[in-house]
Design goal:
mainly alpha, elongated, 73% helix
């Protein structure tokens, strides 16, 4: 993990999602853990996208 990933303060969920996705992709964060943590966000996003 590069320093900017762990130390940067993210302005919004999108940046955080993007970085977390990178970490998931590189197996630094467990996929299940990521999905559990973001379950609410994903459900909200699905509702918005469904409109």
């Amino acid at each position: 993990t590069t320093a900017w990933m762990t130390e940067a303060v993210y302005d919004n969920y999108t940046d955080r999602d993007r970085v977390t996705s990178i970490l998931v992709a590189t197996h630094e964060v467990g996929l299940k853990e990521y999905q559990e943590k973001n379950k609410g966000n994903m459900e909200e996003r699905d509702k918005i996208l469904a409109k």
